[in-house]
Design goal:
- The complex is a heterodimer.
- Chain A contains four helices and eight strands.
- The N and C termini of chain A lie close together (11 Å).
- In chain A, α2 crosses α3 (86-101).
- In chain A, 24% of the residues lie in helices and 30% in strands.
- Chain A has helices at 64-69, 72-81, 86-101, 103-106; strands at 11-16, 22-28, 49-52, 56-62, 111-117, 122-126, 132-137, 143-146.
- By secondary structure, chain B is of the alpha+beta class.
- Chain B has helices at 2-11, 24-27, 44-56, 62-75, 118-128, 136-145, 157-169, 179-187; strands spanning 37-41, 95-100, 106-112, 133-135.
- In chain B, α3 (44-56) runs antiparallel to α4 and α4 runs antiparallel to α5 (118-128).
- The two termini of chain B are 26 Å apart.
- The chains are: A alpha+beta, B alpha+beta.
């Protein structure tokens, strides 16, 4: 499954500006050849995107249906609110989705989260290998970073 | 462990003036905030980050950065974002987008057609309406009222080819989802979001 076919199915972006404020965006054409009227997680606040300026922000990519059913990005931000790192928050949210759907089914689809907290720390986690995210700041000059994954 | 390893390697290279210690990236002491910063999903994030960084590196607002950044992807022809992307099973490209700012304000559009930059429409929903999410024809009507141009209803060459290939294997308008279609959906589920 790590053949590149999962590349950039959506773009989600998170930023922390010079004033220390967070924002996020998410945009997609959705699933190819979807049923007319089908809507995924990308336009749903708390599913595809969530920002809490006190704690952090998260955005998702992958099978939108599964992210909606777990309110995925709200979950990631909630984990950061509880004091977890962005990395750990993304991992726990992925694990929640996998536990909801079951291990066997989870092997058939991809979901990934990226997260950014108020300190400018980042994290990511995916179900499947092959997810990457791009980072630009004073430390990393716009490099692709391979996400950790469950499988 | 790749991200951490790479992170540490990069943080020790040529950043002496900015980063005084190689351990900075690892521990990122809570008192020193790493800003500005932008991250975005997949390979396309590289191009998107460039425009976002133009905003952030000039002291601009994160909200402007994340809008400008993903507009790059919306403008490019690819499978999965913007009007050049793959259509629904009726051959029509419908787009979804959302945006959220530092005040907890949010705006979104779902299943919007023939609008090049749904992220900017989402921002207008946030700023110019008392609502959060507009869908379908109503979202398009709102976009037009905000001055967004109506783009032609046509598939990009790559989307047209992908759609025609898909039609060969798939029933066009099913009464209900058949096993064959379930398989087709599954086969394309990697493009979902």
């Amino acid at each position: 499954m790590n053949n590149g076919d999962w590349n950039h199915d959506t773009i989600g972006m998170l930023a922390l500006d010079q004033n220390g404020n967070l924002s996020g965006s998410c945009t997609t054409s959705g699933m190819a050849f979807k049923v007319r009227g089908r809507v995924g997680d990308s336009p749903i606040i708390g599913a595809g995107l969530y920002v809490d300026n006190t704690y952090g922000a998260a955005v998702s990519t992958g099978l939108g249906e599964e992210v909606i059913k777990s309110a995925g990005t709200h979950l990631v931000v909630e984990f950061m609110r509880q004091g977890l790192s962005p990395d750990k928050a993304c991992k726990l949210a992925v694990e929640r989705i996998v536990s909801r759907t079951g291990h066997t089914k989870a092997k058939t689809f991809q979901v990934a989260f990226i997260a950014l907290n108020k300190q400018g720390q980042v994290g990511a986690y995916a179900i499947q290998k092959g997810f990457s995210y791009a980072r630009q700041d004073a430390i990393i000059n716009n490099e692709l970073i391979a996400s950790k994954s469950m499988f | 462990m790749l991200p951490r390893r790479r992170f540490l390697q990069l943080s020790t290279l040529g950043l002496g003036g900015i980063i005084s210690s190689a351990s900075f990236g690892k521990t990122a002491s809570l008192k020193s905030v790493n800003k500005p910063i932008v991250i975005s999903t997949w390979d396309a994030g590289i191009a998107a980050n460039v425009d976002a960084w133009k905003v952030l590196s000039n002291g601009g607002r994160a909200l402007d950065a994340v809008e400008k950044g993903v507009m790059v992807t919306e403008s490019s022809i690819n499978c999965c974002v913007g009007l050049g992307a793959n259509p629904d099973r009726d051959g029509i490209v419908t787009l979804d987008a959302s945006i959220m700012d530092e005040h907890g304000n949010a705006g979104a559009v779902a299943a919007i057609e023939r609008i090049k930059h749904p992220i900017s429409v989402a921002r207008k929903v946030m700023e110019n309406t008392p609502h959060v999410l507009l869908a379908g024809a109503g979202a398009q009507e709102f976009a037009l009222s905000q001055g967004f141009p109506l783009e032609p209803q046509e598939l990009s060459p790559s989307a047209k080819k992908a759609y025609n290939d898909w039609l060969k294997k798939s029933e066009y308008k099913p009464k209900s989802i058949s096993n064959r279609e379930r398989a087709a959906i599954k086969a394309h589920s990697h493009r979902l979001n």
